[in-house]
Amino acid sequence: MATNARTGAATTRATVRERLRRVTDPELDESIVDLEYVDEIRLLGSRVHVTFTLPTAWCSPAFAWMMATDARDEVETLEGVTRCTVRLREHMHDDEITAGVNRRSTFGTVFPDADGGVDEIRATLDAKSRLARQYDAIDALREAGLTDDQIRTLTAADLTLDDETATVTLAEGAFCVAVDHDPIAAYRQRADVTGLLGDDHPELFRNPDGDPIAADRFDLVYHRSRLANVNMTGQGSVCDALNEARHAPGRPPLSR
Amino acid sequence: MYEQDGEEIFVIDSHLHYWDASEENITHEGGEQFIQCFYDYHTGFTPEERQWSLEEYRKYEEERMLNDLFGNAAVDMGIFQPTYLKEFYEDGFNTIEDNASITEQYPERFVLNGRFDPREGLSGMRELERQNEEHDLQGVKLYTAEWHEGSKGWRLDSDDAFDFLELCVDLGIENIHPHKGPTIRPLNRDAFDVNDVDDAATSFPELNFVVEHLGLPRLDDFCWIAAQEPNVYGGLAVAAPMAQNRPRKFGEIMGELLFWMDEDHVLFGSDYALWNPDWLVETVMNAELTQEQRDEYGVELTTDVMKKVMGENAAELYDIDIEAKKEAFASDDVTEEFGLEAHYEETGAAAD
């Protein structure tokens, strides 16, 4: 346990680990903790050092960069942590990414040859993960007995979320329905990140472009949400198999 | 010929390579990274007892390839798809001439595809004409992530690419196979973006676009394009071996493909030597959707569906008369070499 001399706040490896759950592999939309990318967390006073490895050495440098900067920034939101440094291991650009992220450089400075910036890639993948999460959220609402039309027109204001429960209010407040918390909370978080909760439309669920869903398009949008979900989890299977292959006994070492 | 429940399945493996990644042929570190990346995919999705060593994997002999295709009658015909990568490999990785060294010996068993790269301009056009003249092409494989004089890739919807697609129309080359798959080290990930296929397919309705590897990891973009463009097809290479160690995922992917497209637009390919058809064909043929997946997608992998995916759809695109082929294969060189007479004789008897 580390204690910040100034604030007295206590940080443990467990709290750092818990905070790192918020960081996702942007291509898979799964937490880097659940994916077991995090190798080591070290505490040095109010400083934290996180070491991580990705499934393949040629994972997109932009994705590696996003995970490294997100890990650093999330850990630094913990009270009692003054600075977080990261180290990426066994990647084709491990040294550049480690040094660049710890020096707080930009992706463009470290990788001048890359086409397009990290922000653009992140926005595309966030939009895809919102759509993928929408699939599970709609299923949860159907499970709770809502009709497709009620789901389609549900607004952010109709939804009440706390840490463990989720309820929706229907028929202008006439009644409340409890729904499965996790898929709804996960969806709402992404809807927020992608800027849909603050735009001109009150509807919670949207088509892939971010507009409200027309009545005759609900099935199509639901199926496209399923497709986004299958794509993300399918890629997860590929990464997973590559990860196993890479760590199999007797595997020749990767050339550098 | 593969048989299941008394039914004969004529298998056309639509994605074959005959490559050389030997150390002598590698001229750039990218060449070494590329073959090692392939090898990770190979070991990641091959049953342990069927894995090759890295040394075997770098460069294989013709005999081994023929045996892997025909030895246990898994495959009846194959389509070669060249991959040049001349900036990594002195003589190229898998060129049309490499492939022709096999297809010329067994012309009835193989289709030989060509390739083009629009960044080669006029000389590239002349080269495509030469390939067509010499090999009478029906298709081309396109590698949009290939490096070329400082460029790390090209797009199918560029003006230059359209000039080459025009030339394909003029030459009667109807089948365009863009590689749109996972990132292969050290190639640029963005060069496999699948959205450029949309514009090309709309602009050239007379051509067929077989998107190799289904755009993975962009299956969502691929299916959405394919749902709207009747001349867009999906090549199963890379997805197919998931049937081995990720069967549920394979089922979901097949479910999505059949839901957004139909069974006439999906083509089997082993990606040899990434994976071996002598175990892969059987694995894919035995794949099943779960009850939940059948309900969700409203589709099933019936024998009729699989017959199309494994061969009939490729036969349609490449004007292959399956019945005539079965007759011819009863006594050709490959049948003689591998003792396959019984497979094709039975067919003859059943057809009479």
Automatic annotation (TrEMBL), chain A:
Residues 13-86 form the MIP18 family-like domain. InterPro entries: Fe-S_Maturation_MIP18, FSCA_dom_sf, MIP18-like. It comes from the Archaea. PANTHER family: FE-S PROTEIN MATURATION AUXILIARY FACTOR YITW. This is DUF59 domain-containing protein. It comes from Halomarina oriensis. The lineage of its organism: Archaea, Methanobacteriati, Methanobacteriota, Stenosarchaea group, Halobacteria.
TrEMBL record, chain B:
InterPro entries: Amidohydro-rel, Metal_Hydrolase. Residues 12-320 form the Amidohydrolase-related domain. The keyword Lipid metabolism does not apply. GO terms for molecular function: hydrolase activity. It comes from the Archaea. Keywords: Hydrolase. The keyword Hydrolase applies. This is Amidohydrolase family protein.
